[in-house]
Amino acid sequence: MGKTLNIMENNNAEMFIFAYTKDNKMKSFFLNVLAGLTLFFAPITGLIIVVGLVIIFDTFTGIYKSVKLKGWCSVRSRKLSQIISKLVLYELSVLVLFPIDKFLLNEIFLTFVSVQFFATKLICIFLIVVEITSIKENIEEALNIDILKAVKRFLSRAKEISNDVDDIKN
């Protein structure tokens, strides 16, 4: 009976060692794949971060507008959960377009424009403009102002001051 127990203990130890090395191989494989993906998408990490930050800022301005106009009771988890799907959709669209741009479109665009990954950057600009427009609308509704009119007034006033300074110099 003692010999059988030793055999079973050895089998368990071998199975443990096999499972341990198998797990390490799997872990190593996944880490290598993750490192490869990180390096592949490294040229557009800044774009991905900027798109994500603009979405987050749009979310904050949307929450501010909602609280300012309707109070805290207007903030719902269902509406907030839509932010996650929006963030995932926007970021995935950039991540899916990048390989297409890198292997297909980049050479075509480089003949016309000397910008690497032009299509990826163009879609990022489009997404950022959409979010900035939403941010502008949220601020205008929350504060009851027209930002474009305020900027025009500021620029015309700055021009008047500049003209006055030029008149004083002369």
What secondary-structure arrangement, pairings included, does this model have?
Layout: H1 2-40, H2 45-70, H3 77-112, H4 118-143, H5 147-169
Helix pairs in contact: 2-3, 2-4, 3-4
Structural features, described:
This protein is mainly α and 170 residues long. It folds into 2 domains: 1-40; 44-145. It contains 5 helices and no strands. Helix 2 (45-70) runs parallel beside helix 4 and helix 3 runs antiparallel to helix 4 (118-143).
Q: Would you identify the regions where 5 or more consecutive residues have pLDDT less than 50?
A: 1-8
Q: Percentage of helical residues? A: over 70%
How many domains? The number is 2
* Number of strand segments: 0
Concise structural overview:
This protein has 170 residues and is mostly helical. It has 5 helices and no strands.
Give the tags:
88% helix; 2 domains; mainly alpha; flat; 170 residues; 5 helices
